[in-house]
C-alpha cells in the first residue's frame, strides 16, 4: 500500500488542535501542540487559510475552524438530520408551546429542513424548504459559525455585525427581537455534528412577550428548553460535547 502523505497528516493534526482549542491558540501554541517547527506550522496554516479550513482573528492572531470546513460538515444528509432531530423537535414544541424549526445553510441561504407546528388549533403553514432571513435567530446562529470574524451581507439583506456574531458564538445561542416580524421573537442554538462543526440550528419562534422579558432577554426556562434540545440533537449526531 502507498504511504501516507506527510503534509496532509500534518494539516489534519493542526485542524484537530484548532478544533479542540475553540479559537484560543496562535501559531506558536499550535506548533508546540503538533510538534512541528513554527515556520512549518505557519506555512500549513497559511494554506489552510487560503482554502477556508481555518480563519484567523486579525486582532489576536488566533486561529479557529473556517467556513470551508463548515460547508463540508453541512453536507450531512438532510433526511438523516431531520430523522435524528425529529423527536427532540416534537418534544420542544410540546413543552414550549411554540413552533420549532431546524435550519441549515445552503450556500448563503438559511433553509428550513424541519418544522414542527405550535401545538394549537390555529392555521399554520409548513415552512420546510423556506429561506429565512439571516437576521432570524436561526440565521444568526448559522452565520456566527460560518462567518466568525467578518460579519455577513447577502444581497439586500441586513448586515450582521461581526461583534454580534462573536457574541452569539461565545454564548451559544441567539435571539431575534422583531427584526424579521414586528412583535415576534426567536431563540435558537447550534446543532453540532460528530466532528464538532455546527451543521444546523434549532430554534423556536413566537410572540416577543412570551419568549423574552421586557429587556429583551430570553426567559430562562424557554432558553433552557431550546439549548437542551439542541444539545440532545448534537448527541444524536455523535457530538460527545453536546
UniProtKB/TrEMBL annotation:
A biological-process GO annotation: negative regulation of DNA-templated transcription
Top-level taxon of the source organism: Bacteria
Residue ranges constituting the HTH iclR-type domain according to the UniProt record: 5-67
Keywords assigned: DNA-binding, Glycerol metabolism, Transcription, Transcription regulation
UniProt domain IclR-ED: residue ranges: 68-239
Molecular functions (GO terms): DNA binding; DNA-binding transcription factor activity
Keyword Nuclease: no
A Pfam family hit: IclR_C
SMART domains, A to Z: HTH_ICLR
InterPro entries to which the protein is assigned, alphabetical: GAF-like_dom_sf, HTH_MetabolicPath_Reg, Tscrpt_reg_IclR_C, Tscrpt_reg_IclR_N, WH-like_DNA-bd_sf, WH_DNA-bd_sf
Chain ranges passing through the membrane: none
Keyword Transcription carried by entry: yes
Job of this protein: May be an activator protein for the gylABX operon.
Alphabetized PANTHER family for the sequence: HELIX-TURN-HELIX TRANSCRIPTIONAL REGULATOR, ICLR FAMILY (PTHR30136), HTH-TYPE TRANSCRIPTIONAL REPRESSOR ALLR (PTHR30136:SF24)
Name the record gives this protein: Glycerol operon regulatory protein
Amino acid at each position: 500500500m502507498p504511504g501516507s502523505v506527510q503534509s496532509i497528516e500534518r494539516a489534519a493534526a493542526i485542524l484537530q488542535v484548532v478544533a479542540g482549542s475553540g479559537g484560543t491558540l496562535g501559531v506558536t501554541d499550535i506548533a508546540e501542540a503538533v510538534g512541528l517547527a513554527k515556520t512549518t506550522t505557519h506555512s500549513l496554516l497559511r494554506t489552510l487559510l487560503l482554502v477556508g479550513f481555518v480563519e484567523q482573528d486579525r486582532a489576536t492572531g488566533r486561529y479557529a475552524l473556517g467556513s470551508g470546513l463548515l460547508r463540508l460538515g453541512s453536507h450531512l444528509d438532510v433526511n438523516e438530520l431531520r430523522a435524528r432531530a425529529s423527536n427532540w423537535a416534537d418534544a420542544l414544541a410540546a413543552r414550549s408551546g411554540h413552533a420549532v424549526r431546524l435550519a441549515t445553510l445552503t450556500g448563503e441561504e438559511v433553509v428550513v429542513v424541519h418544522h414542527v407546528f405550535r401545538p394549537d388549533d390555529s392555521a399554520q403553514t409548513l415552512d420546510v424548504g423556506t429561506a429565512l432571513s439571516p437576521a432570524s435567530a436561526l440565521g444568526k446562529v448559522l452565520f456566527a459559525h460560518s462567518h466568525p470574524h467578518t460579519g455577513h451581507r447577502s444581497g439586500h439583506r441586513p448586515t450582521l455585525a461581526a461583534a454580534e456574531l462573536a457574541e452569539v458564538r461565545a454564548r451559544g445561542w441567539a435571539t431575534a427581537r422583531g427584526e424579521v416580524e414586528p412583535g415576534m421573537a426567536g431563540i435558537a442554538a447550534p446543532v453540532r455534528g460528530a466532528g464538532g462543526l455546527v451543521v444546523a440550528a434549532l430554534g423556536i419562534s413566537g410572540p416577543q412577550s412570551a419568549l423574552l422579558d421586557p429587556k429583551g432577554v430570553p426567559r430562562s426556562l424557554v432558553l433552557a428548553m431550546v439549548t437542551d434540545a439542541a444539545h440532545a440533537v448534537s448527541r444524536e449526531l455523535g457530538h460527545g460535547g453536546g
